[in-house]
Amino acid sequence: MSLRFFYLVLLVALLPGLPSCRTHNKEAMKVLVYTKTEGFRHEAIGAGKAGFEVLAQRHNWVVDFREEPEVFRSDTLQNYDLVVFLLTTGSVWWLEDEWYSFDRNPRSNVEVLISIDEASYEVDDNPWFEGVEQRMGDHPLVWYREVGRGRVFQTALGHRPELYADPLFLMHLAGAAEWTALRK
After folding, report:
1. Paired sense of beta strands 95-96 and 91-92, if any
2. Which residue, 22, 44, 66, 75, has fewest beta-carbon neighbours within 10 Å?
């Protein structure tokens, strides 16, 4: 028996006793996914939740889906590494969600990752911003910002249920979550 064959047999014999390639000692990232809506409720919320469950399994996350505003008490929030506002609408705690249009271009205060040229689609006036010029030309869709020791990541993508089964979109969400929670 050759020495190379011996080492191969030894390695195969030891593999069942070795820890798996997945890191088990890494503390699970705790993610709050907030889905409260007022009025309009987007049909992609269910698919979004399913997508985050897939991400939780793949990336060693613990995901908690909540809709009650009491979750935003400081004693509750300290239990999470990351808060995700998943397709929220209306007045949601301190955050008001705008659909497809923004009351100002955030580019001067953020790092834009994805934008769209408004000349490529028809811009509808949003009644929430009466008297505000909503046509920016350059329309940011995905951006991030560091605030003190925290991080903010904004994506205006995800209004189609099928996106939450798309591997590229799930990678987009996973990367955003990991970076925002200071994991990368």
Report:
1. antiparallel
2. 75
Q: 83-121: per-residue pLDDT in tens?
A: 998 998 876 574 222 345 676 788 999 999 988 777 766
- The per-residue pLDDT for range 135-154, each reduced to its tens digit, is 777 888 899 999 998 999 99
Are β-strands 95-96 and 61-66 bridged in parallel, bridged antiparallel, or unpaired? unpaired
Q: Could you write out the DSSP letters of every residue in 67-84? A: --GGGGSHHHHTT-SEEE
Q: By percentage, how much of the chain surpasses pLDDT 90?
A: 35
Name the maximum alpha-carbon separation found in the chain: 84
Helix (H) or strand (E) holding 99: none
Structure tokens at 124: 């509808």
Burial class (CB in 10 A: 0-12, 13-18, 19+), 37: middle
Is residue 8 within 8 Å of 58, Cβ to Cβ?
Answer: no
List CB contacts of 117: < 8 A, sequence separation 6 or more.
Answer: 137, 138, 139
The CATH architecture annotation of domain 26-180 reads: 3-Layer(aba) Sandwich (3.40)
Q: Name the 3-class secondary structure at 146.
A: strand
What ranges do the domains of the chain cover? 26-180
